């Protein structure tokens, strides 16, 4: 059984960077998604660049400022020149994202990813937005640059790449869940498939996250779990091989 343990949101804030770094060095994370447009992207990469993990582009069009000028991508930004939030985008009845404009911003983030890291992303995917046009733009850019596009929510992608996403997380009233039970509940899927991917958001809380993210208490909880002896023992007991993307 092979399992990819992915941490998203590197660069989103200083606190998250610290939590992801700990989840790699003291935990079981094998792959990390970098958000190239965020202020702390370079700092985050510097913290984990010598670790044995794959680093992908966690493309972001719903938080902070774009790398393109707002005039180039009017369908992606509000009157202040900042991205619309994922909550706003995902509630739209009509997909108003312009594919060509979206590709411009994705390309700009790809170029900045390469400037930060010195290499192309080892995988390529998107953050928090479920727009068809956004996914299409990601696929177009990935194909143009020969990048490994990752979308475990798409059955066709799963069939072609033989990587299955673990089941959906069900949150309680505090927006938390039991990570031990989550892993136990997905053991059957791990046994039935060649390779699976589990996606986490480890991090420590800072004011930026408290103000701008719906994922708050879950971040330090997952960080603690990913470094726990319970998880490390569970992986060994079930003969699970941790792999990178």
From TrEMBL:
Pfam family, one: YdjC
Top-level division of the source organism's lineage: Bacteria
GO molecular function: deacetylase activity
Signal peptide feature range: none
InterPro entries (alphabetical): YdjC-like
PANTHER family: CARBOHYDRATE DEACETYLASE, YDJC DEACETYLASE FAMILY MEMBER
The name this protein goes by in its record: ChbG/HpnK family deacetylase
Organism (species): Catenibacterium mitsuokai
UniProt lineage: Bacteria, Bacillati, Bacillota, Erysipelotrichia, Erysipelotrichales
